[in-house]
Amino acid sequence: MGNFAFYGRVSTEDQQDPASSRNWQVTRARQLIDTEGGEIVEEFFDIGQSRSLPWKRRPEAARLLQALSDPRRGFDAVVIGEPQRAFYGNQFGLTFPVFVHYNVALWVPEVGGAIDPGSDAHDLVMSLYGGMSKGERNRIKTRVRAAMASQAAIEGRFLGGRPPYGYRLADVGPHPNPSKAAVGQRLHVLEPDPETAPVVARIFDEFVAGSGLYAIAEGLTRDGILSPSGHDPGRNRHRSSSYGVWSKVAVRAILKNPRYTGYQVWNRQQRHEELIDVEDVSLGHQSKMRWNDRGDWIWSDEPVHDAIVDLAQFAAAEAVFTGAQRAKVRRERTKHTYLLSGHVNCARCGRRMQGSWNHGRAYYRCKFPKEYAVTKGEHPSTVYVREDALTPAIDNWLAQLFDDDHIDDTCAALEEVAGPDVAEQNRIDAARKKLTECDNKLAKYRQALEAGADPAIVGEWIEEVKLARKAAEVALRPRGDGSRLTADEIKNLVTLLKGIVEILSNADPEDRKAVYSELNLAVFYHDDGRMQVTAGPDACTNECVGGGT
Fold it and tell me: Which of 48, 227, 278, 292 is the most buried (most CB within 10 A)?
């Protein structure tokens, strides 16, 4: 028959020995092609790759697909030992056309040889095995989750993972599963760590007494107590252990962990699968961890390890969080107008300064990240500046642009940037591009429906695209003649703006804010009281203002 390439896959090393799995898959493949005198000359074997991953995302499968397009490849056909390990869901329907395109036969034992592209029976068999593969994976997930839920609720068993800060693992004997016990696996239980358990108790005591998260983190760092990542960097390699400082996030995670009450709590988080690209369903899913609702948590029937805090204290901490959340919901925020919102930047770090209303005045502030109790660097902890210290200097500078000495330069600059009117054409081009994108998305969604995607989910996507398409159609409607100001009109307009300082000072705050936005102002404030202002293409000034810290 000729030369064959072999493709196989094993999911994870700890579920099955890759060497053993490869051997029996190769043996089954050879039994199929030996009757035809075939020989395996190249192997593609994925190790540690989930069957749910599309072929393009499996290293060896992707390499095989690339080899198909090479006319110098050393094989004429591909043989698979077990299709359930190679294809999942609708993957066969997405992959087999590539084999047909490059005239490479695909052999599987389930059809007794090569798959016939024109055979409905062969297509049905392979689709059936893809569905069986998906069903098998879902059944395994269901069984594992059900078993872990019962072990946590009934037995209170520690189900693995990193022990919470404040605890360490204690050996309580061999694993009850004989096969796992035979390879030396042991059961463990949580026990308080003499060094860190008192820290957890201190955090709960201070929080219930009224201390905030940052105050607690600051006190722990000040007292030289290492954070979880600093105390055990080997166990927390995904965290930064620099300086061992405490963060508000670390304090909050401890206060939110119910296992400090002595109960085993499981299913606080769960892995969810989400589409990588809703516009290309063939790329498959990616796993992301999501927090579950409290009602879905699994608690052990009885305490199973020594508690660091009692249930009453944990409930009191939860009440503090709940009260703070309710206060946020009930709080009615007064809307204030910030004339320079989005235009004031901190010259020290370049970040945009936030608006803050204090004592009846508008301020702008840059708070150096206070996520950690100790900050490093030369940036002040907070940079404040009053809005009414900035606007007079800005208005006076703008007035200079329209005085007798600068009015000609200003008109020339405005006339230069006016140029040909391309805004209308750009808007139309963008709308046409959006229409094309929407039409392409709708076509892909129809393909997804034909490939077996959930009609309810895809239907939602289609409705979203239809709305976007309608908006693009509206944008294509003409909007006036799109004419631009002439040089004389610009000169007349600039002449009228000679009194801009007085105009701005008496203008409605929202109108004044709109003027600053139209001028595209950029203010860089230095903590020593200096500021740099730019507007338009090249205008720039430096001023010294007060009202800042």
Answer: 227
